[in-house]
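Hi R.,

As promised on Friday, here is the backbone we talked about, encoded as C-alpha cells. Could you run it through your design pipeline when you get a chance and send me back a sequence?
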C-alpha cells in the first residue's frame, strides 16, 4: 500500500475518506459528519495546504484513500516541542491487515525526523479498545481520563489522553 503526504490537490479524495470516517465512527472523532458535510471542497483543500503546523498522510489504493492520519505541531516558541496525532482512520474494508500500524509508523517516523519535536499527544475514546491497544504498542501511555469529554447522540463519552515522550525505536 502506497503511503503519501497529502496536499491541496488531494482535496476530493480526502473529503471522501474524512466524511466516511465521521459517518462510520462517530464516537472516534470530536467533529461530526453533519458539521463537516457542510464544508465546501475548498475548506478541505485549505486544510491540506502545506503548513508547518499540520501534515496529513494517507494510504492509497490506486486513486482512492483507504486510511488517514495527521501529525500536528505547536507553532508558539514555548510549546514548539509538542505535537499531536489526530484523525486516524482505516476504512472498514482494510482493517486488521496491519495498515493502522503502517500508517502510525509512518507518522511517527515523520514526527521523529522533526528537529526538537519530543512530545506527541493524542486523545482517544476511552472505550476504543482497538485504537488504545494500537497506540500503546507504539509507546503511548495514558495520562488521564477526561469524564464527559464528548456528547454524542445523547450519550456522554470519556476520552483517554495519551502521550509519547521519547523517540520511537523499533
Ligand atoms: C483503530 C484502527 C485505526 C486500527 O486500524 P487497523 O488497520 O485495523 O489496525 P492494524 O491491523 O494495523 O492493527 C494494529 C493493532 O491495533 C489493535 N487492533 C486493531 N483492531 C483491533 C480489534 N478489532 N480488536 C483489538 N485490537 C485491535 C491491535 O493491537 C493490532 O495489533 P495486532 O494485530 O498485533 O493485534 C481502525 O480500527 C479504525 O480506523 N477504527 C475507527 C476509527 C478510530 O477508532 N480511529 C482512532 C481515533 S483516536
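Update: got your reply. Pasting your designed sequence below so it's all in one thread:
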Amino acid at each position: 500500500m502506497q503511503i503519501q503526504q497529502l496536499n491541496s490537490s488531494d482535496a476530493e479524495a480526502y473529503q471522501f475518506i474524512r466524511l466516511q470516517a465521521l459517518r462510520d465512527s462517530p464516537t472516534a472523532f470530536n467533529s461530526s459528519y453533519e458539521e463537516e458535510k457542510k464544508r465546501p471542497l475548498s475548506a478541505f483543500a485549505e486544510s491540506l495546504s502545506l503548513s508547518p503546523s499540520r501534515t496529513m498522510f494517507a494510504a492509497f489504493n490506486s486513486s482512492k484513500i483507504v486510511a488517514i492520519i495527521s501529525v500536528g505541531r505547536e507553532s508558539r516558541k514555548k510549546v514548539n516541542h509538542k505535537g499531536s496525532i489526530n484523525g486516524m482512520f482505516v476504512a472498514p474494508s482494510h482493517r486488521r491487515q496491519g495498515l493502522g500500524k503502517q500508517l502510525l509508523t509512518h507518522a511517527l517516523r515523520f514526527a521523529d525526523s522533526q528537529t526538537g519535536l519530543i512530545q506527541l499527544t493524542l486523545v482517544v475514546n476511552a472505550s476504543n479498545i482497538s485504537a488504545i491497544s494500537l497506540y500503546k504498542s507504539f509507546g503511548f501511555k495514558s495520562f488521564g481520563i477526561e469524564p464527559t469529554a464528548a456528547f454524542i447522540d445523547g450519550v456522554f463519552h470519556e476520552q483517554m489522553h495519551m502521550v509519547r515522550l521519547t523517540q520511537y525505536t523499533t
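One thing I noticed while checking it: Residues 2-164 form a domain with the Aminopeptidase fold (CATH 3.40.630.30).

Thanks again,
M.
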